[in-house]
Fold these 2 entries.
Entry 1:
Amino acid sequence: MADIAGKTQKNPRVPMPEQEPKVRARNFLEVPTGYTMKMAQEEAARCLQCKKPGCVTGCPVGVDIPGFIDLIVQGDMSGAIRHLWKMNALPAVCGRVCPQEIQCEGQCIVGKKGQPVAIGNLERFCADYEREHGTGELPPKQPSTGKKVAVVGSGPSGLTVAGDLIVKGHDVTIYEAFHKPGGVLVYGIPEFRLPKAIVAQEVNFLERLGVKVECNAVVGRTVSLDELFAEGYEAIYVGVGAGLPKFMNLPGENLVGILSANEYLTRANLMKAYQFPDVDTPIPHGKNVVVLGAGNVAMDSARTAMRLGAETVKIVYRRSRDEMPARKAEIHHAEEEGIEMCLLTNPTRYLGNEKGRLTGMECLRMELGEPDASGRRRPVPIKGSEFQVDCDLCIVAVGSGANPLLTSETSDMQLNKWGYVVTDPATGKTTKKGVWAGGDIVTGAATVILAMGAGRQAADSIHNYLTLGW
Amino acid sequence: MFKIVRRQEMTGGTVILNEIEAPLIAKKARPGQFVILKANENGERIPLTMADSDPEKGTITIIYMVVGKSTALFRDLQVGDSYQDVIGPLGKATHLEKVGKVICVGGGTGVAVLHPITRGLKEIGNDVTCIIGARTKDLLILEDEMKKASHDLRVCTDDGTYGHHGFVTQVMQEVLDAGDVKLVVAIGPVPMMKAVSKITKDYNVPTMVSLNPIMVDGTGMCGGCRVTIGGETKFACVDGPEFDGHQVDFDELMMRLQAYQEDERDSHQHYCTIRDAK
Ligand SMILES: Cc1cc2nc3c(=O)[nH]c(=O)nc-3n(C[C@H](O)[C@H](O)[C@H](O)COP(=O)(O)OP(=O)(O)OC[C@H]3O[C@@H](n4cnc5c(N)ncnc54)[C@H](O)[C@@H]3O)c2cc1C
Ligand SMILES: Cc1cc2nc3c(=O)[nH]c(=O)nc-3n(C[C@H](O)[C@H](O)[C@H](O)COP(=O)(O)OP(=O)(O)OC[C@H]3O[C@@H](n4cnc5c(N)ncnc54)[C@H](O)[C@@H]3O)c2cc1C
Ligand code: SF4
Ligand code: SF4
Ligand code: FES
């Protein structure tokens, strides 16, 4: 991020120290190592404390950015984190994974002429400081209302709902299908970008507040929404994410050595397969790895493959660099670590051997044609440009859809044509009485902060319902 | 934590039965469904079919063959010990219907999976012939239970140490020749299910098999369990595990089951060395 624009300027941002690319490309430790207090205060001093701050309008949940930054300048770290928590329950996470360049930092006035204030880095610093030096004091809780709320799914959106409602005095239980809570934060985003100890601590914080977490509960199978109501829950929040892997439907897709990013990252992160055989779950170690797609999920897969010892890792993407949906910082980190970008390249089929194992793939070169409905220039294949890429592992990271496991068991909850839950945009209410939904299961795969924003909105609406009525 | 309340060794300790406290799952479990178990913090998520469930007692029963590291780890758990995680019930329940004459064919630990299905088919009024097989007499499981669950039990061993000398497919063919069979259910090693399906296709008898690809989540989220059915990709954990045997690409399934063979062997050895050193 430090050299985001590559410009030399009078007032550059304070770079966050990070592990050397060569070293970090072979370990799973976090890449940026964090500011010191001195660095943070120096960076905080770059903020102009705007009266009409653009940065705040760029943040989907409206964090009072000049407010918390001013508290860092004053050295009041306890005040800074408490100020952040008012709008954002997971600053340690957002500071690390928000696409700041198109959100808060993208609107920062200082960024108009040079590098914007490093808002994400500062947010992360406050949260890390609290974790290392804080008193661990819990926020005040309203007296108990005796009302029970169930939250389905423990991703950022479910965690936000749980945190908001527990302090309002409700009795909250989270039901999570996996054996560990955290959603994509634990099974998707890798350790080197978001250490799992941080997520565990956030969950532990909620548990200390009184939130109950029931893992291994696949709602729709172990228990249904109606059964939860029968058990005495008065409101339910559905935040089950967009956990359905998309494949490309190319010939040869079921060869051994082709995995969805969901499977690959779940093995690596949730199951900690990079420690095999000290842990029991294996993961394929590719020598020559191809990753299809160019979003955050693709970058995470590619960087994981490198850390697992690959000799070459290629990102294959059919559009050009400008259209790559990943955060700029991730693309930059990936390239530094030696990952090749094969742009304007489209796979057409997989090649395998007699044992059913992947040996390579055939691709076509593309060129940019007329703009399509999204305004992006549509890639069109160049005739006769077929070529082969040797690979023994291919990770498919071309997006995800709505997982029907819960929704197909809940016939009175309306879905749209892609299987996502239909909600009232102002409240998060679904068409089923007493049920709210938010996050990726409503919007399709989006971002952590949007999932949290939806959670906050629904929590407010649930609180109104429990105190005033539907 | 999910406590083991009963443990039984079969076939000289290569097949183990565990009855486990899991009240929520026991309440919901239907024949044909499975659970995913994880022994401890570092454990792998292993799918096993429920051989039985008791909603009153709040327990489920699994029967598994010790084949690699994770099942070896499971074998070391005694009555009073617990699995850290048990998730379920997963997969679609068997569609049980009264059709008339039915053959249930089981091999290896597939017999355990077949047991509740056989019982269910009999209970709703089908005429059930059951054929079970094993390599040799000592590896046969649940003979008495299968006798009770069906009208007619035939036993085969590959080496002729007990019952019919030969494969289950030969006996099945005799029963098919007698005519009128409306459904075959076959559960066991992949080559057995493949052979059964090939024969029943010639007889034009609908055939149901239960597939066991490698799984991670069991909820349709990873796609690791994909199988090809009639040319289409399906996720066995949510679309199955039971499928029309005439549509299954068994060769692909066999190759996909080998995906981690070398890693698994190393891991199992690693585990045995550590355990034996203790
Ligand atoms: C690899 C990867 C990298 C990403 N990188 C970024 C990034 O850098 N920045 C960013 O902002 N966003 C990123 N995202 C997107 C972001 O993580 C998601 O938008 C966000 O996590 C969605 O939150 P959620 O709470 O809606 O769902 P999720 O985080 O998906 O959580 C849903 C939870 O519900 C559980 N669940 C599902 N079904 C059931 C059921 N039937 N019963 C009980 N529980 C159930 C799931 O197991 C899961 O734990 C990334 C996503 C991935 C996959
Ligand atoms: C839905 C489902 C239901 C199942 N029900 C039962 C059951 O009731 N009883 C039972 O004994 N087994 C059952 N299995 C198979 C069982 O899950 C595997 O035997 C187990 O995962 C092996 O783990 P391991 O670590 O001990 O051995 P590994 O070291 O992982 O494997 C050892 C050998 O077993 C093969 N193998 C690996 N995974 C599987 C698998 N999923 N299925 C078959 N072979 C595999 C490998 O190719 C290898 O050769 C079921 C599988 C599925 C998917
Ligand atoms: S939550 Fe995200 S977008 Fe908002 S200020 Fe923090 S880093 Fe920026
Ligand atoms: S826009 Fe930039 S300079 Fe202005 S308040 Fe926000 S962070 Fe500070
Ligand atoms: S086991 Fe992951 S989709 Fe079936």
Note: The mean pLDDT of chain A is 93.
Entry 2:
Amino acid sequence: MSAEVFTEHVLVWLGPVPLTRTMATSVATSLFLWGALAPVGRAVARTPEGRLAAAGRLMYRFLRNLVTETVGHPSRGLEIFSGSLFLFIAGAALLGQLPGFAPPTTNLAATSALAVLVFLAVPFAGIRARGLSGYFKRYFQPSPLFFPLHLVSELSRTLALALRLFGNMMSGHLIVALIVALVGLLVPVPLMALDLLIGLLQAYIFTILASVYIGAAIRVGEEEGA
Amino acid sequence: MSPALTNFLFEAANFLVLAAVLGWLLFKPVRRALDAEQARHAQETEAARHLREEAEVLAREARAEREAAGREREARRREMLASARNEALQAAEASKRAQVAERQRMEKELQDWRDASASELVDTVGRIAAESVRRLLSAFDGPALDLALVRAACAELDSVPVEARGAALVESARPLDARSRTLLEEALGGGVHERVVGELGAGVRVTTPAGQVDATAVAVARQAARSVNRVRDAHGVSLEGG
């Protein structure tokens, strides 16, 4: 295992564009998820009675329930977005247990990118649900004086998203890397299991928070529309 | 270009691509399967609801039929009960009528037997009385009983029209003596057809087309019995057969 906390390890420069190790692990994580979950989708479509299909339905039902409880009704786009977030972060945590593999979520730029995507998804979903003026009107309620507070709130929670995920994943991975470097392979196994558990928990927390933020924007619009 | 900025942009793009791929390859077929399953469940639920409604309708119909059958059975039971009661009453009435008829028949038989016994008793009493009277008259050298009765009969024959006296039949307990025959021939205006009937006791009984003149001991006894019966009817006392 290896950990680079605040530096970017550039593997190769493609002209002015650097190809970093985080980018490589992100692609690897995406390919892993693609390769692992595409058969599940095919199994659901072709052999719905199989165990793989049952697992796929179970996972999707879990996501749908999560979104439904947050938003109040099923939302196809939010299901895909939240499900992808959960699978990406959980897959990264799972692959992070491989020797020499640093999950992309241990990089602040990667977690910031995910948090910024959530930050952008909130107004996207809100504007789609209640319109442009309807969505931005809530920044000036109950008084226009609250606009800076709303703005700071959204920025701070986005920053919190990024830092929470980065801090938890990086710290766990760093501790395991240090233990492995000091005492060998078998000793840090419990810590690796704990790191995996923390990774899955962070995936769930990140997904829940993203769903709550986006769902709040959608639900506020619907409540006002009603 | 800064590696951090490149990393940031690449991660965002990578995630969007991943979401699109997963949405196409994983979420879409799973969502379709779940929707199809949900639609099938809804269809099955609807079918089950229809079946339940049909079952409820059938249950209501069965309940109504059962209630109607119960009412019909109750009506039939009441009807049969009334019919049975009617038949029982009729049977009791018929039995009562049969008992009354049997009783009346037995009473009639008893009455007939009483009448026959009384008549026989009267005849016997008449004969005995006539014999006793005749013997008594013979012992005191008095007039003959038979002759006295013949004279009484001749006196009665005066009330019979002359033209009806020719074909008269004379019955007597014993053969007529000459004196009696002469008296009768004078009363009848011609010959006498005789016949001996011992049960008469004494005297003669003359039968003409216009009527009968009975001057026998039995007739006297019967007359006495009739008198006694009249007294019985008038005072509720019976001398016939106890």
Note: The interface with chain A takes residues 1, 3-12, 14-19, 21-23, 25-34, 37 of chain B (CB under 8 Å).
